[in-house]
Amino acid sequence: MTAAQSRLAAFAIVAIAIAASAFAYMSWRQSQVSAFAASAKAALANVDLVLDRALLTVRAAQGLYASRPEASEGDLTRFVEGMGPVLGLRSLVYHPRVTAEGRAAFEVGLQRSGKSTSGIWTLEDGRRVPAGDNPVYYPVAASYFFPDVAPVYGFDIRSHPQRRFAVDMAAQYGLGTSTEVVTFVTSGEEPVRGVIFYKPVVVGGEVVGIVSGSIELDQLITIARSTSPDIRDVEVEIGPLELAGGAPVDSPNVTDDSEPFLVVDQQNHSGRLWQIRVSGGPRITDYARGYALMTLVLLAGLGAAAAVIGYSTAARRGRDLLSAETRLRRTLDGLVPLVFMTDPRGRVITANRTALDHAANGEADLVDKTIDELPLWDSDPANKDALHLAIARAAEGEERRLDVLSTETESGQSVYDVSVRPIAAVNGEITHLVVSALDVTERVEAAETERLLMRELDHRMKNTLQVVQGVVRRTARSHETVDAFETSLLGRITTMARAHDLLARERWLGADLRTVVLQEIQPFEEGRSITVTGAPIRINPKGALAFALAMHELGTNAIKYGALSVAEGRLDIDWSLEGDDDDRKLIFHWRESDGPKVRVPERRGFGSLLLERSITYDLDGSTYLEFAPEGVNCRIEIPWDRIRPMTASVHFRERLAKGAMA
């Protein structure tokens, strides 16, 4: 190699080293920008989370007072402490709407309770002064402070100029609002600044009060700065109140990559646009590492190309891995079943969106808990033992499948088809378990409904045969001729057939009382004056058959001897449910009028006996027959729990409660 070639080679090596060093510096710089962007986004996410949780807490208190406007401060305290501490929230306060006419009574109540002797007041030049004459006040009546701060009972938020506009907007439009940055009344010697959120309490279409929650701005900034040491400063600017809501904002990114880096984000909260500016940059140690990297690249020289190739390869693999993880996450989140990824012991590592939506507190209720400990499942030991056994078998390489009962909610309990599958590494070692749970409640209830119908049909057939035997026997005894016997018997059996046909259409789950009554009196109407009134009530099959027979007997008697035997006769039928839950009864009336003069029968016929048996003995009810001269009156009283329809769903819930489906 000649001297010229040596110099040329040295120049080439130096050029490559310089180029590699410059590339390394730019890469390091870009990584710092990306790292700071990630830190800033995490800080902004923490701010958004704190604000959202604070607003949710205020909304929960709003719900408390909307359902119970008379709730006391003790109720508020128990309510808040039941939810646990809320990061960033300073106070939760209820301000009832007090009119000018009710001001004196409210102030007397404050004095009697020992909360305040100042009445309704406001602040002027830092001093408490009585609030001026206003048509409406919103004073502090109940409060809960998360720090140790003394309450300010009687302080009227509407009389304070910094709060009045937001309060009036909340009361006028019934929407949540917030203040600009204000100084808290409870600040003490050192002023404490923050933002107050207002939620109107609406009862019966009227605003009866306002719930407020306050957040300290300095504490919010501290939370954001604590996310990463790269963050040096956080500035918050709050815009004017716009109840129509702001336009959607873009995802925050680094807007200025000079020193210091700057990320700007905009968030909409309670009608105001929050602009949050996060600034910062690499620390001295980060710069030292960066310059050390450049020095190393300069010294390495010839290794620059290999470093670039390695960097590019690693970056591409990282993107491919991230893309694969993203596709997997989207696939899992798109599945209907609940899907959990666990370690071999069944401890949850991650879960899909469906599973998170079923957990009251999201990931907090799922991650790092074993499958059998999740709050999704019923606490029945058989439930937990079955899940624990399935996890143990899957950890040994077996696939397991079982039905599991969910926790009972207001809408009932669900049954899940749970599948546990092992995932093995290349060497055969079980590294993870995939647990999926599909809601099969409808399928189980369908099977339960079919079982119920078959049981009811069997019971009805046996009962019907017994009733027919009794009807034939007693009808034969009470009629002297075959024709009379045939007519009476066919009428009663036809009545039973119509009732059975109605119940069959309703799948033997019950029938509407009005339909039963109208179906049985329809043959007697033909130009006669019949009135039927009563609320829609469904009764069970036994009750439907009993009422069908009762209507037939009463109608037959009325068409032969009573009000329906003459054109001017009237029949009024009505019913209602009376009494409390434990003593609730169905009261049924049959009233005849304007018919022939009624005479008390010399003997009781089978119709009366059948009426008494079907109501009194079969349903534990009472029948009162009055043969008044102006018309027959019949009053029937039946305990509601004897004729209340028992649906397939109710049977299914009873079996679940007994562990039959576990």
UniProtKB/TrEMBL annotation:
Catalytic activity: ATP + protein L-histidine = ADP + protein N-phospho-L-histidine
Gene3D superfamilies in the record: CHASE domain, PAS domain
Domain CHASE residues, every copy: 134-222
SUPFAM superfamilies associated with the record: PYP-like sensor domain (PAS domain) (SSF55785)
GO biological process: signal transduction
GO molecular function terms listed in the Swiss-Prot or TrEMBL record: ATP binding; protein histidine kinase activity
Gene Ontology cellular-component terms listed: membrane
Keywords, comma-separated and alphabetical: ATP-binding, Kinase, Membrane, Nucleotide-binding, Phosphoprotein, Transferase, Transmembrane, Transmembrane helix
Localization per Swiss-Prot or TrEMBL: Membrane
Coiled-coil region(s): none
Primary localisation category: membrane
Tagged with keyword Secreted: no
Pfam family name, one: CHASE
Residue stretches spanning the membrane: 291-311
EC number assigned by the record: 2.7.13.3
Keyword Metal-binding carried by entry: no
Domain PAS: 324-394
Protein name (database record): Blue-light-activated histidine kinase
Organismal lineage: Bacteria, Pseudomonadati, Pseudomonadota, Alphaproteobacteria, Hyphomicrobiales
